[in-house]
Amino acid sequence: xITHQYKEGITQPRNLLTKDHLQPRTYGxxxxxxxxxxxxxxxxxxxxxxxxxxxxxxxxxxxRRDVTLRARWHTISREELxxxxxxxxxxxxxxxxxxxxxxxxxxxxxxxFICCQKKLFRRA
Length: 124
Ligand SMILES: [Zn+2]
What we know:
Elements: E1 3-4, E2 12-13, E3 17-21, E4 36-40, H1 41-47, H2 52-65, H3 69-72, H4 78-98, H5 104-110
Antiparallel strand pairs: 1-2, 3-4
Zinc ion (ZN) is lined by residues 39-40, 42-43, 115-117.
């Protein structure tokens, strides 16, 4: 079983579905049904506190740039993951500088995919 230890102290299979906060907890997002989405462990960890739509846009860009990446997503090397994480943080900085946090309703209206697994997002 492929595991990783990206967040300190947490080791999970990279393709395990986790509960992710649409609005990150650091921005006041609550652990309530309306604010929870499913995302694989890899996407959840990599996204960190980035706004969800911005992260998924970034991810689609990576997938277009490297057509093998989606298939390799859960087995990429630690170095590659670190590189993507750095890009995430840079994008997040730009986002903090330039963009206001989108509200949850907006994210729900525009949300297409939960994560790399590209499943349609549907509210139960
Ligand atoms: Zn994923």
